Amino acid sequence: MNYRKIALLLATLFIGSSCLAQTSKIYKKDWIDLNKNGKKDIYEDASRPTKERVADLISQMNLNEKTAQMATLYGWKRILKDSLPTSSWKNEIWKDGIANIDEHLNGFINWNVVETKLDLVTDIKRHVWAMNETQRFFIEQTRLGIPVDFSNEGIRGIEAYQATGFPTQLNMGMTWNRSLVRAMGQITGKEARALGYTNVYAPILDVARDQRWGRLEEVYGEDPYLTARLGVEMAKGIQEMGAASTPKHFAVYSANKGAREGLARTDPQVSPREVEDVLLYPFKKVIKEANIMGIMSSYNDYNGIPVTGSSYWLTDRLRTEMGFTGYVVSDSDALEYLYNKHHVAANLKEAVYQAFTAGLNVRTTFRRPDSIIIFLRELVNEKRIPIETINSRVADVLNVKFRLGLFDSPYVKDAEASKKLVNSAANQQVALQASLESIVLLKNTKNALPLAKTGLKVAVIGPNATDADYAHSHYGPLMSPSVNVLEGIKQKIGAQNVSYAKGSELIDKNWPNSEILPEEPNAEELALINEAVETAKKSDVVILAIGGNTKTAGENKSRTSLDLPGHQLALVKAIHQTGKPYVVVLIGSQPMSVNYVDLHAPAIIYAGYPGVKGGLAVADVLFGDYNPGGKLTLTFPKSVGQLPLNFPTKPNAQTDEGETARIKGLLYPFGHGLSYTTFSYENLSVNNKLSQNGEVEVTLDLKNTGTKDGDEVVQLYIRDVLSSVTTYEKLLKGFERVKLKAGETKKVSFTLVPDDLMLWNREMKQVVEPGDFKVMVGSSSEDIRQTAIFTVQ
């Protein structure tokens, strides 16, 4: 009996099998014979410069192989019907290779549809094996063995069945913590590579401009400087772990008219200076400082020209000016929109011509890659697209694959190590810290918070008490175990001390029509409110968990109102009328006009979308085991009728002075956030009268003047006092999250560089103009504690 054959057979039955014959002959001691010719070619030699390897490979590629590197293949159950390579792949267009495979075996099938049964998705070791087998097809079964780049989403952890689940990017913004965002990027990149993904679509560098926008959860906030600084950290963290960072959406994406989503996303109403100062600023910084390997082009136009068909955007600005050296993928249908929405191309073939001549490298959308690739071949044969253009686009893609090491080490080597790493206890602890640091204390009258952990009967009421859908939505881990608010509170003070009532659904039965035609609660809805009232009456204190969730916000879910959805306001009023003490936990990605809550509730915390550990973090804050230090990165208006309203703003553009018929003021300004302790700002010092090429050093003493240890986010704003064009009232140009023990003092330092002082003058040239600059340092954009003036000669 041949025991070796039996062992091999059993191993095959255990780990699965591919119907394609495998070969070990091409795998040499320190190289792979990718083109199977028996010799080490330049592109197979890891000791040669990348530029030489790319040139050698392109010289060996035919037109079919080149154009195959210019399209995305979506993964299993998106486009791919097979979870593993089959012999039929030899008859598919990707027999010549493919640029990247997106979202392969990550578990996401469609909105609210997650694969839970296939072990190649749910079991990490099996998943790693399947990803390797998919890569093996391209290494072993294609002529030149060009590896595929496995791309995937990752703005709150890598999108997989299970992985480390972080709070949303908006919550990460509210931590104002560079090192924490860097750690998140490192974990995301490391877990991506461990699962076989080599390219992460993160961070999102869009800057919020409208509080109604459904995708606010995906951005860091309203401020370009904050977005840039955190974006650099996230991108660096991902790429330090050997994965590519592909930010999105370039460019002018987040200023969609009226915050419209779905198929709108066109005609952004933004001035040229706002484009430069706000919307492009983060991309410039991240490209320059993080050397990112990817960019996703957006599907909007600007000033009448679609970005994905614009050489101005994809070549002149992105590559020539900003120095981008990676490859550009199109956002979903961005190429197709050139002809079927923007109507600047007669048909799909003409859209292909416009996009790829403009500078696109890879078309990415939820359709088969065939038509795009075939049209590219036709356009070359018709001599409309020069082969030199094709070579240039392909070289960008190959350059990234070489930078990722895919030609030399294309497989995940240790599935057992991957299993130990992904969603490990250590990584989960970092995610919990992110959840804690992102929570913002909006209001705390007479020290209503923190609550006592003993001696209280607590009623937890509201639709967000048990709803943790925000922790399982698209663009991050799908099924990582989560803790909701009710569970977190029970773990904190004991289930025997906690009662629960839903009080209301998140939305009413007529939502969203009820946003403009509100109705009184029906009998069923009143019964929920009455049940909550009775539960509240039997308690010592009520915790109201209200706000928004995945039903009211997210991609394609912009709102027309910022009021509490459904009958939640009626619930709040009913609880208030019981006379029982209560505090509010506000969950949701969009700022909400909670005017009644702000007026009456003694304490409010804004948890945003706090991640899979959100319930634990909320409980820690409520009961004083963590002193909140998060700060808002969005402006909270009192009414949707005040919009547009955002930070930064031009002089007097948002003033209420002289108004007599409008609601005045904000609920909460940009940068707002309280603490269970207090801080003093003293001894501000600013070097002044520096040359235009000099740096400005700003220092101050920060003291914890309260009785509890805590964090303060020190914010530095500047104002160009007299300028040739109008400039913003306050520009954030520095921030630092500082941990202080009770009574402790620390010196906080900032360095302003000439770039921080620049404006676009009347000739649209970026310059530093001589004159005075005002420095404002404080606890929020409106809570300025110290000011000074310095002069640029």
TrEMBL record:
Alphabetic keyword roster: Hydrolase, Signal
Pfam families (UniProt xref): Fn3-like, Glyco_hydro_3, Glyco_hydro_3_C
InterPro entries: BXL (IPR044993), Fn3-like (IPR026891), GH (IPR017853), Glyco_hydro_3_C (IPR002772), Glyco_hydro_3_C_sf (IPR036881), Glyco_hydro_3_N (IPR001764), Glyco_hydro_3_N_sf (IPR036962), Ig-like_fold (IPR013783)
Signal peptide segment: 1-21
Domain of life from the UniProt record: Bacteria
Residues in Fibronectin type III-like domain copies: 712-781
GO terms, molecular function: hydrolase activity
SUPFAM superfamilies (alphabetical): (Trans)glycosidases, Beta-D-glucan exohydrolase, C-terminal domain
Recorded family membership: Belongs to the glycosyl hydrolase 3 family.
PANTHER family per the UniProt record, alphabetical: BETA-D-XYLOSIDASE 5-RELATED, SUGAR HYDROLASE-RELATED
Protein name according to UniProt: Glycoside hydrolase family 3 N-terminal domain-containing protein
Organism of derivation: Pedobacter helvus
